[in-house]
């Protein structure tokens, strides 16, 4: 192949890629427009509530993905950050009259500090040792919450949980008569965490985390400080997870240790990210849109008759996904989308 062919071939290859990229941007804009218009089309409260829950789990899975998807460690204790954020915002609203928006930030900062305290001694653990440690720490904190009625004179009511007081419908109180505002808040939070993931993908933080995931010793030899980058990502992930915990408490208007800090919630975050495609922007979202309806159907159809069977089926779905789709659902869906949009196969 001569030089002339190479010079004329490069633009010929670049043109379809530009066309495919333009079509992908148009498709993304269409999906966003559809998401913004959805409440105008869905008038049924049950269906809108279900969509909000799917977005909520997509948000939590994306927050989990910020550290676990890039470092390659599986945390089964992330629910504790959601619980801490929710409890702090609810108690600040109840006892100090603080707006949930400010309480959300206070709770998220507390969760980030807790993540640093947990992450520093456990960051050198690998594989199942790290996963088991996160379960143990989260369970210790959950059980402590369940058996504690008062902390520093503030009632948290143990396993009974806290009810969010009604202070009037307003944006400042994050309380509404309709579910539509909750939908838009959750959608904005999901877009925020997806934007954060996209930024991380191209930032020094994301590159260093991937290097640490590939070979920790080699990364250290290149001057990368694993402790600093790992703790930064862990704190960021905990911060975003705690924001989700506050939203959930305000949306459901109730919080308790079992629902907001249980291991099952952590497993949901991990499975959605892994099955969708961890370490990517869209993977956790795809995983949530696939698994949340499956989970709800299994719970409603099997949870009351054969307790725990829905978790077994849930686990089988994970095993099949790991065996046959190691890169998650995102990989085959991306190939299909590229063919549909006329892009070159990779």
From TrEMBL:
InterPro entries: ABC_transp_permease, LivM-like. Keywords: Cell membrane, Membrane, Transmembrane, Transmembrane helix. It comes from the Bacteria. It is a multi-pass membrane protein. The chain crosses the membrane at residues 24-42, 54-81, 101-120, 127-145, 151-174, 181-200, 229-249, 270-291, 311-330. It is found in: Cell membrane. CDD domains: TM_PBP1_LivM_like. Coiled coil: none annotated. This is Branched-chain amino acid ABC transporter permease.
